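#lab-general

N.A. 3:47 PM
ok so I finally got the sequence cleaned up, no stray characters, all 455 residues accounted for. can someone with queue access submit it? mine expired

B.Y. 3:52 PM
send it over

N.A. 3:53 PM
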Amino acid sequence: MQDPFSNNSDSPIPRFEQMLKTNEIYFFDAEDFESIVQYYIDSGEINLAKKAIQLATKQHPIHSELLLLKSELLIFDGAYEDAKLLLESIEEIDPKNQETFVQRATIFSKNKNHQAAIDLLLESLKHSEELIEIWCLLGMEFMVIEKYSEAIEYFKLCIEQDPEDYQVLYNLLFCFEFLREYEQAIEVLNKILEKNPYNEIAWHEIGKQYLNLDRDKDALNAFDFAIISEDQFTGAYIEKGKVLEKMGRTNEAIENYQISIQIDDPSAYAYLRIGKCHQRLGNDMLAIQYYKKSVQEDPSNEKSWIALIDFYINKEDVKKALHYTDKALLLNENSLEYNKRNALLLQTVGKYIEAEIAYQNTIELGNYELKIWIEWMNTLIFLNEWEKLITVGLQAKEFYPNEEELDFRIAASYQKLSRLNEADFFIQDLCKKKKEPSESFLEFFPDFRRIFNNH
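B.Y. 4:20 PM
back already:
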């Protein structure tokens, strides 16, 4: 591993790694060990960090900062009790060290005792000099327990001190959006822009807040300012494209999506949006071309496959729609949307056995639309599966207890099985409610009107 400051001859990293290669033991002062351990933690090389801290605490057994790093690694491993004991010994050495409060709060948080973490962090504010870290942690704890107003107050304090801490900013905006306080979010973002009028992130986020308020023109202006501030800002072109689409300026939207692709690696989302735009313009060949590019770019992108499948469904090209549904299902057989379309398409071409399985899969995956229940029952009619049709119908009535289309099919199925008492129960109830059989139902059971009218 190379030290990112390898051109700095004072860096201890190369010397430490040389020691590991030779299996010799070198002496490092405590500050060098702090740099080494922190470097490996930041780099994600936790095993090397553990090796370094093991040697460090042998050479400097009562150095509080090294012991705190050891505690941090114990917490990372989930050894909370060991970390707590170590923190207690550190407090004896250095009772007002801010990091002990932070790590004890982290342990509480990891154990889902968020209120205890908050209480400890509030106490630490009395002893801490680095308040931003504590404010940020308090914001996070309040956000976890969904006390968003309290979280906002602490995140705002952080942003006032460091307007370019974007992780804190995104957390703050999340809280505002959850509370639908879009105007307040804009106010905070404008304060950031007062300090730096060319902050492209702030302009970008203001644009998104304006969209939440349905102020499309203001959003468009904000995205334009984001692009002026940073003309390679891919996200701003994407958002601008979305607004232009919404405003009906489809060709301009395509231009912005195209720019985003030229700046950065192509994205499945940009290809999908371009395809949607071309479809809206009636450019069918271009729409298909971009939908295919989208699924090639990211085969797991469900929205891209759905756009391609629905394109052919709308064109009534069932063969091609089924072809792409089959390909999509090979990639994700548990997709509710793929199974739903597969069932409807298979039913359309008369493959009722396969369609019946697909409808069952769709329901099992969590789609409880009335249409899906009805079409599943219709498929069972084609298969003369009367017992199963009744079972499915009764299951559907748990979701739609007053839906007559279900009752008519259940009644007709009981009649097919010569279970006339059960059929009469449903027919009489439908008569009381003055319900008439629909034409779509009578296509399956043309004799039912006569039977129904005799009750």
